[in-house]
């Protein structure tokens, strides 16, 4: 095992070399951004600009919300080297339960949503207990879950068929926009405001993190690169926000996904539980001998997956303003692919929810763009499958080389 | 010359940084039982791997002359073809397959393109008879105990028409009856003309069965003793096995300050249902404050099982009796979590498998066992964490560019230091070190010894498990010797000599 020479790191290197080593070290992450940008450019060109209109970007966010929510939960599961195949039909089932309670029983929305999330929690706990306490492998447990919840979805929707949801508040979740403070005409002021706040927050936290690192004499990127990165991120945020502001503003779905993303990012990076998840994924035996309650951490991940699956179901039925007996089919495929494209290691122990979101955007941009082009749904699966396997193959190779 | 079935001449085998075999000569007469003895790491298994082709021709220097011809084995298949069969300590049978399927696995009896099962079953019956097993060949292997499985392995070797059978510690996991039976069968095979090489730590067995005994030490042949000429004294074998100069230097402890007994294990007994026997029998040990207690024994003596069970980790076996007391209080330890919070830490012998999370960095590994100390509310105080990791990095001299270095990229010695840092941060009262210097270089070893001295000076108590004799003698204030799950002796630093320890380590009931 080679040890890196201490002096080599301290050496002042030229900008060019630094860029090169940076690119090498973060090849995996950068590749993902490049692919996303390439996809966006490709579809923008072939659809004659239709892809990057404010309407379509809003549409993309709304389409992607339920996948993003599933993928965030799936990231935890996959870091732990487990899998959950049942999430699609758990989502479908949950959406149908919500629709029935709202439409047939006329229950108020603020009762229905917590109740459905509670059902998701119970489902996750049931599967988590099977995996951690009974010892049934996750693949089998959740494959059985797929059967069960696909069946239950059919059972509860068999009489009515598709259930149309008329509850306005519920439908706003994945169709509506955040309210505005009408100051300027033709521009969504609130959206611009949020964009500016976001940029300030990003710049502030990045500078603080850099200062902290410098204080401990850690390696930091050189100032020009740091500034370029900050400017780039700020520009991207402001461009998206401006485009949205000229139309109807930020959709609620984006706000919900952002909140969950921030929450899970905090959990994984700042809490004991997050540490333990990475530790168990990296070496469960070592984690156990370090005093980690491996079974309970896994149980937590399955419970969280159950809740998020139900939330995804709520978002999906809100978007369609209805619940159908077919809802949930192949959701798990998009969720798992998003996580892996986003850089979760197939061998476990590595992964970030922030990157998973990029993976979701890759997958859903492909879906959205190909829909605009009128590509057949089945052909879409073929294309997504190819991108997915290329991403994972690339990931496996780059990890080996490191 | 023709009465030698095998002559290994000037065999030298090196691994990166280690010379495992150094000009070893090893001659085996046709039709004899030849025992190979030596300490752990003396090179016995390596020599047998060279012979069987696991380390193929070209990876070693020297010649293997078998049946009068120089052999160039490229793999196990080549040596098997010439009639050399090897049976490892870990059985290589497939539990879910039947006995006859196992016996002919890999060299199936064919009738045209398909397997001739009837002939397979008939021939299995024949070879089973040779090892005096009266069992149903169609029963699954998993239904039989270790002793029977060992015999099935031998039957498997015989089915390949083996002329030279190598057994690597065949009785290590057997009880007394099964061991006797096995030795009896080895004698019968000898009558039938099969030559046998047996590696064993049990000198009583060795002197009873061997025609010739060869002793290896530090990768070199020390002597070959002809037993047929007259009874060999066990002590003479032991002298040949150990008699090494202590080359390592152990740092002196400046102020020994050994207090009262603070940790006691009483009547500690563990039962392993898979082996169908007890793996720890009424173990009694105690440790004083500020003391380094050595726990010596050969591989398989039960040292790691003892340590892990104290630490609340008993995979596959269970504690049937016994008590742990720390500072006069009886502990109820059910899992490592409890053990850690009670003040016991265990540094694993298998740092890559059980100790460290290799894909994470030094900082992560340093704090994972005691994050509680860094948590404010629910958030981990990362600045505090950096301070802790940097403190240990400097304090015990972990050589790495920064604490953000992935542990998988460090050298063995530095990985071991990270493990120590991790458990020091837990602030234990009792630190159990399992093979603390295995696979690390001399310089790092010295640093780890110095660190151990520093920790006991500060009032910690250390239990050091090691199979390296000189290390145990050089570092321990007092030591226990284990064999077959039993404490066979307790020696003070002054009493302990290599011969005494080795005699206790190979003592069997």
Percent helix of chain A = over 70%
Number of strands of chain B: 24
Strand proportion of chain B, as a percent range, falls in 25-35%
Distance between the termini of chain A: 12 Å
- Which strands sit side by side, in order, in the main sheet of chain B? 6-9-10-3-11-12
Largest sheet of chain A: 2 strands, antiparallel
Walk me through what this model shows:
The complex is a heterodimer of chains A (402) and B (509). Chain A is an all-alpha fold and 402 residues long. Chain A has helices at 6-10, 15-25, 27-46, 54-79, 87-103, 109-134, 138-157, 168-172, 189-215, 223-246, 252-270, 272-282, 284-289, 294-320, 331-341, 353-373, 377-401; strands spanning 163-164, 322-323. Chain A has a domain at 23-176 and 292-401. Helices cover 75% and strands 1% of the residues of chain A. In chain A, strands 1-2 form a two-stranded antiparallel sheet. The model of chain A is unreliable at 1-11 (pLDDT under 50). Chain B folds into three domains: 4-242, 3-Layer(aba) Sandwich (Rossmann fold), CATH 3.40.50; 247-343 and 428-509, Rossmann fold (3-Layer(aba) Sandwich), CATH 3.40.50.300; 357-427, no CATH class. Chain B has a six-stranded mixed β-sheet, sandwiched between helices. In chain B, strands 18-21-22-15-23-24 form a six-stranded mixed β-sheet, with helices on both faces. The radius of gyration of chain B is 25 Å and the shape is globular. At the A-B interface, helix 12 and helix 13 of A face helix 10, helix 11, strand 20, helix 13 and helix 14 of B.
Give a short synopsis of this structure.
The complex is a heterodimer of chains A (about 400) and B (about 500). Chain A has helices spanning about 5-10, 15-25, 25-45, 55-80, 85-105, 110-135, 140-155, 170, 190-215, 225-245, 250-270, 270-280, 285-290, 295-320, 330-340, 355-375, 375-400; strands at about 165, 320-325.
């Amino acid at each position: 095992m080679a040890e890196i020479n201490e002096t080599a790191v301290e050496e002042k290197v030229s900008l060019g070399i630094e860029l090169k080593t940076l690119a090498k070290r973060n090849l995996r992450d950068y590749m993902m951004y490049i692919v996303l940008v390439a996809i966006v450019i490709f579809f923008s060109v072939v659809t004659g600009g239709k892809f990057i209109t404010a309407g379509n970007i809003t549409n993309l966010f709304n389409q992607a919300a339920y996948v993003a929510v599933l993928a965030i939960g799936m990231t935890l599961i996959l870091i732990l080297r487990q899998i959950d195949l049942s999430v699609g039909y758990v989502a479908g089932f949950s959406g149908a339960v919500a629709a029935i309670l709202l439409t047939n029983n006329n229950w108020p929305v603020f009762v229905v949503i917590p109740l459905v999330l509670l059902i998701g929690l119970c489902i996750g706990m049931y599967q988590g207990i099977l995996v951690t306490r009974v010892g049934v492998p996750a693949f089998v447990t959740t494959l059985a879950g797929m059967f069960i919840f696909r069946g239950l979805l059919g059972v509860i929707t068999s009489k009515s068929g598709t259930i149309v949801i008329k509850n306005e508040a519920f439908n706003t979740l994945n169709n509506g926009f955040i309210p505005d403070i009408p100051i300027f005409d033709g521009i969504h002021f609130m959206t611009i405001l949020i964009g500016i706040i976001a940029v300030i927050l990003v710049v502030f936290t990045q500078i603080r993190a850099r200062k902290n690192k410098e204080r401990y004499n850690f390696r930091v990127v050189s100032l020009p690169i740091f500034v370029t990165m900050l400017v780039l991120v700020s520009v991207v945020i402001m461009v998206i926000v401006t485009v949205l502001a000229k139309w109807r503003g930020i959709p609620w779905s984006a706000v919900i996904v952002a909140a969950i993303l921030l929450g899970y990012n905090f959990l994984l990076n700042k809490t004991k539980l997050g540490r333990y998840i990475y530790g168990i994924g990296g070496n469960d035996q070592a984690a156990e001998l370090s005093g980690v309650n491996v079974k309970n951490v896994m149980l937590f991940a399955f419970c969280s997956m159950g809740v998020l699956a139900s939330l995804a179901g709520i978002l999906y039925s809100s978007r369609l303003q209805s619940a159908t007996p077919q809802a949930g089919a192949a959701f798990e495929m998009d969720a798992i692919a998003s996580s892996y494209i986003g850089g979760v290691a197939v061998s476990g122990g590595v992964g970030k929810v922030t990157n998973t979101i990029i993976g979701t955007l890759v997958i859903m941009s492909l879906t959205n763009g190909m829909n605009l082009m009128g590509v057949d749904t089945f052909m879409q699966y073929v294309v997504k499958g190819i991108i997915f396997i290329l991403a994972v193959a690339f990931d496996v190779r780059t990890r080996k080389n490191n | 010359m023709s009465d030698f079935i095998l002559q290994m001449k000037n065999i030298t085998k090196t691994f990166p940084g280690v010379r495992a075999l150094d000009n070893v000569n090893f001659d085996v007469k046709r039709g004899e039982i030849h025992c190979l003895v030596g300490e752990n790491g003396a090179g016995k298994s390596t020599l047998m791997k060279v012979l069987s082709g696991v380390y193929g021709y070209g990876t070693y220097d020297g010649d293997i002359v078998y049946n009068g011809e120089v052999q160039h084995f490229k793999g196990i298949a080549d040596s098997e073809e010439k009639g050399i069969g090897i049976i490892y300590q870990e059985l290589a049978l497939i539990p879910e397959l039947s006995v006859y399927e196992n016996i002919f696995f890999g060299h199936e009896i064919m009738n045209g393109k398909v397997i001739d099962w009837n002939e397979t079953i008939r021939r299995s019956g024949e070879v089973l008879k040779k090892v005096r097993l009266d069992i149903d060949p169609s029963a699954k292997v998993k239904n039989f105990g270790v002793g029977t499985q060992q015999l099935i392995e031998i039957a498997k070797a015989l089915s390949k028409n083996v002329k030279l059978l190598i057994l690597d510690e065949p009785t290590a996991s057997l009880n007394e009856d099964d061991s006797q039976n096995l030795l009896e069968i080895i004698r019968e095979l000898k009558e039938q003309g099969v030559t046998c090489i047996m590696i064993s730590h049990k000198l009583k067995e060795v002197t009873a069965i061997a025609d010739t005994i060869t002793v290896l030490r530090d990768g070199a042949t020390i002597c070959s003793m002809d037993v047929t000429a007259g009874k060999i004294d066990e002590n003479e074998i032991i002298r040949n096995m150990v008699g090494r100069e202590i080359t390592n230097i152990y740092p002196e402890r400046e102020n020994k300050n050994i207090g009262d007994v603070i940790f006691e294990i009483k009547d500690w007994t563990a039962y392993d249902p898979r082996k169908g026997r007890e793996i720890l029998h009424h173990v009694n040990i105690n440790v004083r404050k500020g003391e380094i207690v050595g726990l010596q024994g050969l591989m398989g003596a039960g040292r790691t099982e003892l340590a892990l069970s104290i630490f609340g980790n008993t995979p596959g076996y269970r504690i049937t009796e016994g008590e742990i007391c720390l500072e006069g209080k009886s502990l109820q330890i059910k899992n490592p979590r409890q053990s850690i919070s009670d003040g016991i830490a265990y540094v694993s012998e298998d740092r890559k498998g059980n100790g460290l999370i290799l894909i994470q960095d030094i900082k992560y590994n340093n704090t994972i066992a005691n994050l509680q100390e860094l948590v404010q509310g629910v958030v981990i105080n990362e600045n505090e964490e950096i301070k802790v990791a940097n403190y240990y990095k400097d304090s015990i001299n972990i050589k790495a560019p920064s604490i953000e270095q992935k542990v998988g990229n460090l050298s063995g010695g530095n990985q071991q230091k990270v493990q120590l840092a991790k458990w020091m941060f837990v602030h234990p009262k009792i630190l159990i070190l399992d093979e603390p210097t295995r696979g690390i270089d001399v310089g790092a070893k010295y640093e780890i010894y110095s660190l151990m001295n520093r920790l006991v000076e500060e009032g910690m108590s250390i239990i050091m498990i090691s199979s390296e004799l000189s290390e145990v003698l050089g570092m321990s204030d007092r030591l226990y010797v284990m064999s077959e799950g039993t404490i066979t002796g307790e020696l003070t630093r002054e009493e302990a000599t290599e011969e005494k320890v080795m005699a206790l380590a190979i003592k069997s009931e």
